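Hi P.,

Sorry for the delay on this. The queue was packed all week, but I finally got your sequence through. Input first:
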Amino acid sequence: MNAVHQVHHRIATIDGHELFYREAGPADAPAIVLLHGFPTSSFMFRELIPLLAGEYRVIAPDHLGFGRSAAPRAEEFTYTFDALADLTSGLLDHLGLDRYALYVQDYGAPIGWRLALRHPERISALVTQNGNGYEEGFVESFWADVWAYAANPGPETEPAVRAALSLDAIRRQYLHGVPDPSVVSPDTWEHDHALVSRAGNDEVQLALFRDYVNNRALYPPLQEFLRTGEVPVLAVWGRNDEIFGPAGARAFTRDARDAEVHLLDGGHFLLESHLDVVAGHLRAFLGRVLNP
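Then the structure:
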């Protein structure tokens, strides 16, 4: 592999916690930070990173409790999206990034929105791939159980959300809405399931399920930032996603002055079935807004 495209696998200690991250591309190139969702890790970007690394500095961390980052038990660390954003911000400061584009997916969205709202001057562009920023994006049939659990955690509401940690549920996230499921490698859901099945990690994930409802309060300030900040937005979305529906992608055009939306015939983990198409839209967008 060309040295420019070589992906490095590194660990940094941030606030006493080891965070794993993937890094590639020239150190002096425009930066893009890739933030993964549930239940995966930077592993979801393993094939996208080399496609960007020739022109951009690419950073893809694993959130605490995910992937190869440290995973302290829930009684040892208070898992909230605020706390995960704090650690991500610390990592980016450690790496000397003061200007970057954000690519967010699923859980990566509320973490990325926090970064953008705390330091709007640092954000050169926003890319959302099934990463929600509007109430319209929630598919109620999926989220009703999460809202019920957040409102009243206990034995009556927990089983429905705990089921999301099962191998069958994770497989379904990868395959639902994909026209040809045979293109999605079983390594994806088996990898994710093995990591969320580590001792004590179930309580980590349940804590984040309970906290997710607090992300909704970010949406009005995010939308105000889009209206006033003039940050270009690319929404490239699997339109068959049963978690975040296509209305969530279209909604970005309401507030962002420069919003580009592509709805593809795929599901929640679009990179597994439409890597080349997503990468094409992404490179064209970044080339337009970062390298005019």
